[in-house]
Amino acid sequence: LTAARMGRGGAAATAALAVPWLGRAMLDRVIASRDAHDVNRGFLLIGFLWIVSVGLGLARNLLTLNLGQRVIRDVRQRFIAHILCLPVAFFDESRSGDLLARLSNDTDQLRRTLTDDMVGSVGQIAILAGGAAVLFTLDWHFTACLLALSPLVYVGHRWLAPRLRSYNRAS
Q: How many CA atoms lie within 13 A of 108 on its CB side?
């Protein structure tokens, strides 16, 4: 199931990346022919691709959310089954509120990791790789300049992300 969700993320990325590629071809054709029919057909095609991209992205998000909720349900059921098997002395030493808070926080973090991070990263990688391929095809000089700046973006992210995480945890 996760592979299918990741595949939908790649399909959504492909549909999104087809828009600039076909937009360029459409613009070249319209300028050459100056035909209004070509303009209408091009805009309909781009609109269709946009709708397909949005639809696939929505399907991916809904299925990913479903996956995350099912995993959380299973973890919580196993946790509760384990808690029910513990001796009564455990409950004399532990506060139930702490157990529930820990369960809630840990399962929510697990859900975010599974849904937002893992599955979302596949779509982002597909957009990045496909976008680089489209850009190289359209204008390789400009793309080379952009890719030369990518290490700076990576270093900035590695520097900024831990600071943002600490601010988020503090609030």
A: 6
